[in-house]
Amino acid sequence: MPGPQEIPQRTVPATILVVDDEPAITKLCATILQQAGFKILHADGSSDALKICTEHEGPIDLLLTDLILPPPGFQLASSSNPFPHVHGLDLAIRAAAIRKGLHVILMSGNPEKDLASHGIKRGTLPFLAKPFEQARLIHLVQDVLAQPASSLDVSGHGKAANDVDWFG
Q1: How far is CA 61 from the centre of its chain?
Q2: In angstroms, rounded to a whole number, what is the distance separating the alpha carbons of residues 159 and 152?
Q3: Tens of pLDDT along 88-142?
Q4: Are 38 and 83 in contact, with CB atoms under 8 Å apart?
Q5: Whole-number Å distance between alpha carbons of 126 and 3
Q6: I need a surface site. Which of 10, 18, 47, 109 has the fewest CB within 10 A?
Q7: What is the mean pLDDT of the chain?
Q8: DSSP-assigned beta bridge partners for residue 104
Q9: In what order do the strands lie in the sheet with 39-43?
Q10: Domains of the chain and any CATH numbers
Q11: How crowded is the C-beta side of 2, counted as CA atoms within 13 Å?
């Protein structure tokens, strides 16, 4: 039995859902994180990611998503579509509503422009600027997973519930 200062070690690797519109980035992130001991799920876009969040029977501990996720091809908007194509922040909010306690990391190749265009303030969510070094990705994922899991609450006012210091 662990003592008062000891934290039991996690025996099951954390599951990370990786989402990017560039297959090479998805594959790179998946390879790096698998080699670091994480279990990886990947999605081609936000629609696929939402479907995985809804239908995957095991845990999903962290969502690593590109902020800019253009929809593939033409799509009619429909209020009855449970898996719409949305940008990364919308995906994070919807996924956190499906998976309570989901940790989130956003990525972007143009952070200043992309964050501002989506109304995201510095310090509200963990962030990874692309391109990134392998060690940076692993360290950020470990840091975010070490934080208490809580629901994502991005209302445009204040900080997200799972807020950590700004990374990037």
Answers
A1: 9
A2: 9
A3: 888 988 999 999 889 999 888 765 655 555 555 555 678 888 889 999 999 999 9
A4: no
A5: 31
A6: 10
A7: 77
A8: 63
A9: 39-43, 15-19, 62-66, 103-108, 127-129
A10: 31-71+82-146 (3.40.50.2300)
A11: 7
